[in-house]
Structure formats: structure tokens, C-alpha cells
Design brief:
Layout: H1 2-9, H2 19-51, H3 58-89, H4 92-110, H5 116-119, H6 121-152, H7 158-184, H8 188-195, H9 197-201, H10 203-214, H11 221-228, H12 236-243, H13 245-276, H14 281-309, H15 311-333, H16 338-366, H17 373-387, H18 392-402, H19 408-427, H20 441-451
Helix pairs in contact: 1-4, 2-3, 2-4, 2-6, 2-7, 2-10, 2-13, 3-4, 3-6, 3-17, 3-18, 4-6, 4-10, 6-7, 6-17, 7-14, 7-16, 12-17, 13-14, 13-15, 13-16, 13-17, 13-18, 13-19, 14-15, 14-16, 15-16, 15-19
Amino acid sequence: MARKLEELGGEGLGGTTSITVVAIASFIGTAIEWYDFFLYGTASALVFNRLFFPEFDPLVGTLAAFGTYAVGFVARPVGGIVIGHYGDKIGRKAMLMLTLLIMGIATFLVGLMPTYAQLGVWASVILIVLRLAQGFGVGGEWGGAVLMAVEHAPAGRRGFYGSWPQTGVPAGLLLSTIVFSIFAAQPEAQFLSWGWRVPFLLSFILIIVGLFIRMRIAETPAFARVRETQTLARMPIIDVIRTYPKNVLLAMGARIAENGFFYIFSVFVLTYVTQALKMPRGTVLNAVSVAAAIELIAIPSFGALSDRIGRRPVYLFGAAFAAIFSFPFFWLLDTKQDVLVWLAVILGLNLAHGAMYGPQASFYSELFGTRVRYSGASLGYQLASVLAGGLSPIIATALLAGSGGNPAPIAVYMIGMAIITLIAVYVATETVSHDIAAEQPQERRILAEERGTVAP
């Protein structure tokens, strides 16, 4: 199996090294994978509570649906560790092909799922298994996608090109929200009967497109150099913990606000607006769609800005704005005015999340050496996703239920996440001038120990 994957990741397929083509391919492939992942989040807020947990109170049913949604986040670190290991041993490209298949097949099968009325509790069990597969796939995908862009990018442009696969996130969110909105406009009975399934089934077409695109890009120069010099890490996940423990923790801290806020702005907001404020679901779905469309420009803009002024200043701005905006976000929603609901989601996703997510790919990649970069970036990124994005909709929904509909405790919780990220990014060193192809001293020591020689 490993040999087949290595052949798939090699240069025999005529892959291109053009940074523009690589960046576009990374963007499209990532957008497809996140389309799959976000469909589940939208369905959890609007459909799954009724089809798979019908015996609960609506808000409690939503909590149960978000529970199955969070399972995907629990699987993400496992995917990051396993896929990251082979990404550092075999190559970035082969792993991207594998994760796309895992995500796409799992999403397609969700569209074929029997409901609670047809299969009882086993329907919920199967749903959880498929969500685990989604989480595993997306957990391994992120590291490979950003490294393909960052390791191909010229010095001084890593922030900009590294933001392209990041832009695949709002693209996937936009595509999934638009497709879901089209079918959500159906009559209620028709939508709950079969309409919600079609967006999941369309994933099959996207798999074919994504595989074709990813087959056309070459392995990264940085990894190819490590492979040629036979300096591959024997146990990448162990090596990254031994050599970069501080950077793994700082990456986790930097991720908390970015990831936690994103799922409040894009997923929990669906529940809050439709259930707590009793507004039409079309209003908030349209707001998320418009915000995601604008973020297609915001994320690469912040990535490019980080090339000029550094990763940390841009990231710190996003975290600070997130903290300041926590209470105003709910004040705008509570007006129940369509325009102000749109404004809340647009400002949250673009100025808070976008400013952190734009420089994140290059920032995380520059924190680790090439031999363990896939494992290191994935570990910090995905471990935090369990604590942040995986739990934030659940915690926010529980706080809403416990406060009798008062969003103030949720805003306080959001500020707490922002403070963690502010501290982590402030403590981290600036990485914009790092030579990501250079062998780091701590990695030379590990390599010398493996070979029984003295490190220079």
C-alpha cells in the first residue's frame, strides 16, 4: 500500500511545479473537501435533529446533532497524525489524493443514509461512523494542501500563496450553503424526505474533479530534497514532539480563537437565528453565503499583508477584533433586522476569522522543519480543532439553553478563546523571514542520533 501511494506521489504522472497552478489546484481540492465537511454542519443545525433525534426537544435534539457533528473533530487529530506520518514519509501529493477519496465517499454515503424512522438508533450510529471518516479525512488533508502551496511558493510570497488553500474553506462553505439553500427552499415535507440528500450525493461528481486536478501537480521541492538526501524522519510524530514541543503548543493556542469563532459565526449562528430569534432560515443562510463570498478576497489579502508586515501582527489583529466583537455580534443579531444580521456574520467571518486564517498556513508551516512539517503543522492545527471548533457550537448551544436564551455567556466564552490565541501568538516568534528549506539545528541532532554520528 505504501509503495503504491509513493508511486502516486512521484513525478511519473507529469506533475507541474508552477506555483500558480499548484495554488489553484490546492484551492480547488480544499474547497471540495470542505464542501463535504460543511454540509454536515449545516444539516446538523437544520435537519439532523429532526430526522435522527426526533424524540428530543428541538434545542436538545440540536445538541445531540451537534454531538455527532463534534465527533468529526475528535477524528481530525487521528487523521492528522496518521496522514501526517505518511505525508512526511511518502509525500504530500499522495496523501492529498487519499484524503479526497475518504472525504468524498463518506459524504456521498451520508446522502444515502436511512433515518431514525427507518432504522432506529442504528441510523444515528452509522451517521457517527461516517462523520468519523469525514473527520479523519479532513484532519489529514489540511497539512498536505497548505504544504503543497507554501513549499512551492517563492520566498516573500508564502503568506499569499499559502492562503489559497485556506480560501478553500470559505469557498467550500459558500458552495455547501448555496446548494443546501436551494433545496431548503423546497416545501418542508419534500425537503425532509429527499431534498436534503442531494447536496451530499453531489459530492461524487466533485471527487472526480478533485482527483483529476490533484494528479496534475508535482511533489514539493522541499520534500523532494529530503527524499533525495535520504534524511526522511523515521517516526515523524515522535520527532516533532521531541524537537518542536513549544511550537506545537503555540500552534494549538493560535488556533483556538480562529477555529472556535469560525464555527460560531457559520454553524451555531444558524441555530441561534432560526430557533432563538425565530427568523427564516433563508435569512441566515444568505448571510453566511455573502460573508463566505467576501472572505474569498479577505483571506488572501490578509495572507499577502502578512508577507509585508509579518504573520504575528495580522494574526493578533484578528484575535483582538474577535474579542472586541463578541458582544456586538449578538447585539446585531438580536435586532432581527436582515441587514444587521448580514453585517454581524460578514464582520465576524472577515475581520476576525479572515485576519487569523489568512497568514495561518504560512505561519504554521514556518514553525517546523521539512522532515516533520506535515506532522507538526497537522498536530497543532487538528488537536486544537477538537477543543475549539468541535466544541464551540455545543458549548454555545448549552450556554444558550442554560441562560434562558441570553447570549451574554456565549460572548464571554468567545472572549476567553480570543485571549488564549492572543497570548499564544504574542509569545511565538515571527516566522516570515524563516528559510523553510533549511535544515534546523534540532533536526540535525535527531538525524545524527539516528545515524550514530555527531551533529555539526
